[in-house]
Input
Amino acid sequence: MLHPGTTPVSMLDGVDTDTVSVAIALDDRYVAHNYAPLPVVAASAEGVWITDVTGRRYLDFLAAYSAVNFGHRHPEIIATAHAQLDTLTLVSRAFHADRLAPFCAALAGLCGKDMVLPMNSGAEAVESGIKVARKWGTDVKGVAPGAANIVVAQNNFHGRTTTIISFSDDETARRGFGPYTPGFRSVPFGDADALAAAVDDNTVAVLIEPIQGEAGIIVPPADFLPRVRRLCTERNVLMIADEIQSGLGRTGRTFACEHWDVVPDVYLLGKALGGGVLPLSAVVADRDVLGVLHPGEHGSTFGGNPLAAAIGTTVVGMLQRGEYQSRSAELGAHLHRRLEMLIGHGVRAVRGLGLWAGVDIDPELGTGKQLCVALAERGVLAKDTHGSTLRFAPPLVVTADEIDWAIDQFADALTDARRSR
Ligand SMILES: Cc1ncc(COP(=O)(O)O)c(C=O)c1O
Output
């Protein structure tokens, strides 16, 4: 809701006066246009429900790209945040703070690793993982300085920094932002032979999403990740799993890699780690990898701050109970069953694991964005990706009835789209 005390009248000149239009027009005027949001203006949220500035409620079927895995304003997380806000929020890493070690110990334990490098955004975790891999390559593997390469997958999404977009295939994300960072080789996702062919003596890491999220929730062939794991071990290359979107319960396991019994050398985590409250990301690995960093070689003023660390500790505790992973597995099976029944009725294909689904719709029924607008009009918030694909990723606290209701809305939106063609 606009705050009358801080909104000068001139800001509203020429703007339609209904609340939603005002908010969108102000966004349009003052916020950089690097997103094209659906025309919904959120004002509050609880659990799986978002309420807009007019009081209309929407079922959240995106969960902030998995950052809200535990639902909006989960009481345990909010209680931790309130308590820590009243105690200590930031001292920087110039001093020790009592919340950081318990968080790192808990997260390392969850991952079965020795150490944690705390950062903030997901992209920072990826950047940090790349730096750690290059430093490990130079200091431990013996690659000549500046000669390291990292093998990545085509159609990856790892974030938006200059280095990360350097190995993206998304022209919209790249165009105009060069020069690009060298040192990356891209192979088709799921093709272990191509990946093996790309690895040479200067390869320090394979950086991969176990399930590609932004690409449309692409699950690799069954032997892919086990073969990547074996190859990395044989060639002395770090396997880095970007579990920023796929991890922390989303696929029905703590980590998506578990579906293939694969343990990477390095986990990159983010999004849900911050409990849907603040940015908190991490690089998690054993001491022989993270130990390559020494004072001054890497850092972040806010990385691992007491507020984030307290919230992260609560999040890890919640994941240790296993209930969110089980919910995601059980309710995810229900979600996928319901979606598969729509194949041939406007849906072409459904992919994914747990409460994470990529749904290709018949392109003749419209774009994914048009379907998302129609769904929003019916009270369900989801997000398109690449043309005619929708992704569904509700908070893991969603109920079977709520899933049924959302899929009923989706089926009706498809029927409407078919009628209006
Ligand atoms: C797999 C993956 N890695 C990295 C990122 C970047 O995270 P952030 O937007 O927090 O920088 C994302 C964001 O969607 C992601 O899905």
